[in-house]
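Subject: Sanity check before I submit

Could someone independently write out the structure tokens for this chain? I want to compare against mine line by line before I put it in a report. The sequence has 645 residues.
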Amino acid sequence: MTRRLFLAAAAIGLALGALQAREEDPPERGAGEGNDPAPAFEERVTVTARPIVEATRVDGYANPVTVVTEEQIRDLNAQDVDNALRRVPGVVISRYNPVGNYGGGDGGGLFLRGMGSGRPGAEISTLVDGIPKFVGVWTHPLLDTLSIDLAREIEVYRSAQPVLFGNMAFGAVNLVPKRHAELGRGGTLSLAGGSFRTTVGTIDYGGREGRLDYHVSASHRRSDGARPGAGGRVAAVFGRIGARIADGWDLSLVFDGSDAWADDPGAEGALPIPIAQRFAIRDELAIAGLAHSRGRWSGSAKVYYDRGDIDWRQWDPDAQEEFSTLTGYDNYGVRLQEKFAVTQNGEIVFGIDRDLYGGSAREETPTATFPEGDYRFANTAPYVAASWTLGSEVQLVPSAGIRYNRSRDFGGDWGGQAGLVARGAWGQAYLRYAHAYNLPGVWAAVFFDAFYGRTGEWKDLRAETLDQLEAGYSRPLRTWGSIEIAIFDNRGRNALRFVPPPPYPPLFANVGEYRTTGAETTLSFRPHRTLDLLVGGTCARSDPEDLPFAPRWTAVSGATWTPAPAWRVSLDAQRLGSRYVWDPRFPEEAARVDGFFLLHGRVARKCGPGEVFLAVENLTDTSYAYRPGYPMPGINAMLGLSLSF
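---
Independent answer below. Compare away.
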């Protein structure tokens, strides 16, 4: 309680100080401006963003990227990344608690078109400013280390990205950090509370003066959860400072830190245990970047360091005692990229990534400590890609790229892609093929050496591979809407899966093969200047049928309505079909979970420089679960206030 009060007092103090500074020292006007800066809320009826997601953009390499903006995150009242993305077509999430994600599995997971269900290890790359962020030992993302507060945009790549992102990129989610683009300074203070003793406090402040820009934020979220033992807490800080050190040269420093824990409430009806099983994580990421752009050349160099500690408290039913799995990891590396414009029609991109990751793990019981090893893996990966634009009224943009990855422990693997984009008055179409790879992680050495007693045999494992074919089409519908359609075929081979005995001991091996084929569509339209609507859906078939976290179909919809200048109403809905779930760390059968329908809403009223809002989740009071025995909350609400300064 003392810490919570201290954080709240500090936030209020910062806000008041910023307000006073604004009164005493008004911000500079931008070049050429003759009027005062625009107020925080314009007094006119306007819809400034589509509900749920922005349009999917297709770049010159036939990569479709779906973007969720900061404004859409606010309209969804999303308190973390998985909630911000749960309405994106093709995305499925899994969780236990209102605040906090328990571990990296079904207690806090993110899955793209069935990808990401084969952990340990990761098939989906999670990044901050293009830098991979994952647990160096267990080689999967932890969503509580991806602070929603730092994101200006969230880019979702539902397609494989073997050239730009390389290893672990059967799909990708990249958080684009906030930066202050306009001259002047300002920020936002938000306080909210709601059901299950949930409290949220955030402060966000940034500015630009001359060649210098900066942005900082801090947040604290806590909840007791809808069930006993479903509590969680997430605290995060973020900072970015940038400087134009010369014409065409920019330097930036980014820091992102998080401190979080979440409890496992256990399956409903199960025998109680004497402890609260808790997953706690601390993580700090620092990125130093240098970017340049002049003439035909542009590029960047980034150096990063990411470290973290995990304390996972569990219960051993056989020994009738608690034990903890303690993990310490650090990831660091360099990422270099250059772009060269070949006249006005072509582009060549080339670069090299050097990534080192790993750490140590151990188990502690009341009577003993069991080391599980200390390992570091290293990858060096050069890549090159090129695209060329042909034609004028009808444009054709062919592209191709390749990456070669040299692992210190697993040898060489390659990834590549080729694409074609066509644009004209009739719309835009694309066709792409990708071959992606996913290397075994440090977890393989831990399991084989420490758990199985088969020292060194993990080096015989091979990379998982994915061959993907995708085609898409989009076009505006006059002035009132747009439509997007995509079809895809994913074929995975050599997937690493848990093989139970016989013979003993159990192990992981390259035995998995799977295929998903499907289609996605999104329709957005504006029947009135005050109303934006969006509907979308994904239909997919999996082989085997019980591929985890890959429902046969999902549907999403959303609406944003501004009935009056001071009011904004947001609704979003999801219909998720039945699906299979499992915990890939153990040799268990996949379990089937029923589908469900969810409806959420948020109403906001502008009040001078601030906003009062009411957000309600599960308006239909649906009974649903992301995994068997773990019911999620019924109807619940949050009331909040945000103040712009």
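---
OP: Matches mine. For the report I'm noting this point. The mean pLDDT is 88.
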